[in-house]
Amino acid sequence: MAYQAFYRVYRPRTFSEMTGQTHVKQTLQNALLYDKTTHAYLFSGPRGTGKTSAAKIFAKALNCEQAPAAEPCNECSSCRSIDEGSNTDVIEFDAASNSRVEEMREIIEKVRFSPANSRFKVYIIDEVHMLSNSAFNALLKTLEEPPEHVVFILATTEPHKLPLTIISRCQRFDFKSHTQADIVARMITVLEDAKIPYNEQVLKIIAQAAAGGMRDALSLLDQVVSFSGDEMTLEDALLVTGSISQDMFYGIAEALLNKDIGQALTLLEQLVRDGKDPVRLVEDFITFFRDLLLIQTAPGLSDMLELAAFEPRFEELAKQFEASTLYNWIEILTKTQQEMRFSNHTKIYMETALLKMVQADAPVQSIGVGAPSPELEAKVTSLEQLVRELQQQLKDGGGTAGAAPQAEQKKRQRSQSAFKIPTGRIQEVLKNATKPDIQAIKTNWATVMGQLQRSHSALLNDAEPVAASPDAFVLKFKYDIHCQMASENQTFAAAFSQLLEQYTGKAYTPVYVPDANWLKIREEFIRNGGLKNEGDAQEPEGQEENPFSSDGASPEEDPFVSEAERLFGKDFVEVHDD
């Protein structure tokens, strides 16, 4: 028979052979023993934690000739056929390669047929999160009310991708990652059964590289055994798994502790040249410093070391570190690990992390040793005095009542004085103002507002054009602050002028003015003879009547008519008396 990998040969065939997952095994065994099994199960968890193995064992126990029993016998014809994969009533379905709705409909059509040789027809759907939405919808009704002889077992590594309607119809079991001790114990069992000598430190390195997955651990063990030959060595395990030796960890940690950044970077460069992945190096260093912190704070928990071996040199190194330093280094490496995910230059991030770790203590020491500067002391004293004065004013009650309006008035005066009113430019526009120009701007005003960015159009919510000449127009603002913001925003001015020229066909330069100032300038212009009042008999012949907006000109005007004329222009408004 051809050689088979360890993870296939030593796949558990009973619940007792499964490593860990006690909460899953006990629940399923009790359900089998007391005949309280349900129609749908969801097994979720990281890869290599026993989901598919548990599903097969459960399928065997359901159909075992010795049922009801907490374990399959593995001797009857049903158990043997399921182990061999020849039982037609236990169907394994890979959703990763059969995700379309057509494949799911084919399963649903066969569900109603009774099992050929077994008590239950068991469907094991692996990687169920890969099914399409249509396939999930097709499965939904059958999963909710299947025939009595059918059991569905769904397995996934990403349960968050499943619709909630599917999850709610299943009994969910969350498989946990295996601990390093569980993985090492399982590998020892495998090696002893295969009569292969082993080194427990080698097995720890393999367990660390497996990251909680039993299948990954047994695959790496298979590689190390094949590479080593007669005896597994530490160097072989480091080479196969891509890990680094503990001596290299010692070298870099001591270089960082002695602030020898040159030595630390040299050792890092050597590791990268040897083919080590910087992302993996960051993870290993986090684990190594975690082990140092563990031994420093709890020396009796040496069994919980994940990466390092407990030896005198490691214990001595742990005593040289401050706990705060290790906490800081772990934090720096964790942030670096997150940043590496978005970059192809991972080596640079690792080098930067080493530099940060060497310099991490400098700011803290300078704060503790240096005396505060005289300027800082004076600033603190003045702030304390100000706080005392404010507290006293609050106690007195009346002191702040008159101060607030004065402060507000001063603030308004400052904001008003900050914007210089372009009186000369406004009067120039008024001298050359024409009715067609102001009408052209007002006609296209709503269109231009709709084309502006939201932040720009917000400045013009309470603004309106009130006068226009062939090359400029006066834009009146209700609030002074909006007027100042518009005049200072060059991006807004460029976009606004460009859009206005696009729709009117003429290049108008905006002249900004607050509401109160506009009324004064307009009245002064009329008083000085720039434009005669309406109905004046001496108005020059041919001069256009009111070529700019008459906002605020006559209080007798109907406000509704004025508002309509402001929005649509006088030529588009007709007033009818009832």
From TrEMBL:
Transmembrane spans: none
Matching entries from CDD domains are given as: AAA, HLD_clamp_pol_III_gamma_tau
* SUPFAM superfamilies reported for this sequence: P-loop containing nucleoside triphosphate hydrolases (SSF52540), post-AAA+ oligomerization domain-like (SSF48019)
Q: Which InterPro entries match?
A: AAA+_ATPase (IPR003593), ClpA/B (IPR001270), DNA_pol3_clamp-load_cplx_C (IPR008921), DNA_pol_III_gamma-3 (IPR022754), DNA_pol_III_sug/sutau_N (IPR012763), DNA_Rep/Repair_Clamp_Loader (IPR050238), HLD_clamp_pol_III_gamma_tau (IPR045085), P-loop_NTPase (IPR027417)
Which Gene3D superfamilies does the record cross-reference, listed alphabetically? 1.10.8.60, 1.20.272.10, P-loop containing nucleotide triphosphate hydrolases
Per its UniProt entry, which superkingdom is the organism in?
Bacteria
Q: Where is this region: Disordered?
A: 394-418, 531-561
Report keywords, A-Z: ATP-binding, DNA replication, DNA-directed DNA polymerase, Metal-binding, Nucleotide-binding, Nucleotidyltransferase, Transferase, Zinc
UniProt GO molecular function: ATP binding; DNA binding; DNA-directed DNA polymerase activity; metal ion binding
**Which ranges carry the AAA+ ATPase domain?**
37-178
**In the Enzyme Commission scheme, what number(s) does this protein have?**
2.7.7.7
**What is catalysed by this protein?**
DNA(n) + a 2'-deoxyribonucleoside 5'-triphosphate = DNA(n+1) + diphosphate
One GO cellular component term: DNA polymerase III complex
Q: Name one GO biological process term.
A: DNA-templated DNA replication
Tell me the protein family, please: Belongs to the DnaX/STICHEL family.
Supply the name of the protein: DNA-directed DNA polymerase
